[in-house]
C-alpha cells in the first residue's frame, strides 16, 4: 500500500496542477481518467489500483482525480466533485462508479468540453437486489435505482467484476426499449503487488492453536448466521485449542440481537483500507471462512476478491458452494467449497486437524492466485484492450 498512500498524500496536498497531475501532458498514449474513488475495497480494486497498473504500461496513462476518505453513509453523489477542464481535455476515457442520482448534467458538461470523450460506468454491486434488512437498503430508494438506469444508458461501456451482474443490468437496459445500448464488459478484480508492498507473503511459524477468521461488516450478518451452528459445534469440539475471530463485525444483527451468544470468539474492529492487509497478516490466521447465502445480491452482485486476498497470503479458505466462489476455487486443491452444515464441519475439521493439509491448500491457492488472478503481463494486455 506504499504507493497508494503516497498517491493519496499527493492528491490531498496543496500542490499546483502540474505537481498533482504530472501525467497530464501531450503524448501518444491512451488517457484514462478515474473520477473520485473512495479509499475502500471498491475504490481501490476498480479505480486506484488499475490506474497505478496502467501507468506501468507503455501504451496507457491514467490519472485519479482525487481519493476520498471512505464514509459508509456517503455515496459518490454526496461528494462535491470538481474536475478541472484540463483533465477532461486530456482524457480519452472517463471511468465513473455507479451513480445513484441523475448524472446527465455531469456527463453532458464534460461532453461540452470534449465531444468525443467516452464514459465507462463500473458496477460494484447489485443495487436492485439489496436485502431489505440490510442497512444499505435504507439509503437506496426506487428513485435512486431509476436514476442509475438512466446513467447507465448514458455510458459507452459498463464494466463489472461479476458476469452475472453484467447480464442482470444488460437485461434491464434492453427492457427500456432504447437503442444504442452501452457495451458490457467483464473486468474481474485481481491482485497486484501494490497491495502487498508492506506485507510479508510468507508465514514465519505455525500457531499452537488453530485461528479461524471471518471478515466483513454488519451487512454480512445473514451470511455469517448461515454457519452459526457449525461455529458452535467447532468451539464445543475443540475448546481452547481453537480461536475464532470476526474482523469488522460485532456479532449483532441490526436489531441488536446477539447472534453469537454462547460462542467463544474474538472481535477485531475495522481498520482503514490501507492498514487492512497488514492487520490481516499480523492476526496470524490459519483458516478463513467465507459463507455466502445463495441469493441474487451475492451471486449476481459480488466479486471473489475476499477469496483472492486470502489466497494471496497463502491462507486456506472454506467458502460457500455457489456461483460466487465455485468458478474460482478448485474444491480440495485451491480451497474447499461447502453447502450443508455437515460439509462445512467436515472440511473445516480436516484443515484444523492437519497442518500439512492447510499448508498444501494454502500454497496451491497462493500459486494459482498470483499466476491466474493478478496483473500479469497477460492480464495487463486484457485490461489495456478495454481502453482502445
Automatic annotation (TrEMBL):
The chain crosses the membrane at residues 30-48. One of its GO terms (molecular function) is glycosyltransferase activity. Keywords: Membrane, Transmembrane, Transmembrane helix. Pfam families: Glycos_transf_1. Residues 211-367 form the Glycosyl transferase family domain. InterPro entries: Glyco_trans_1. PANTHER family: GLYCOSYLTRANSFERASE (PTHR12526). This is Glycosyltransferase family 4 protein. It comes from Fulvivirga marina.
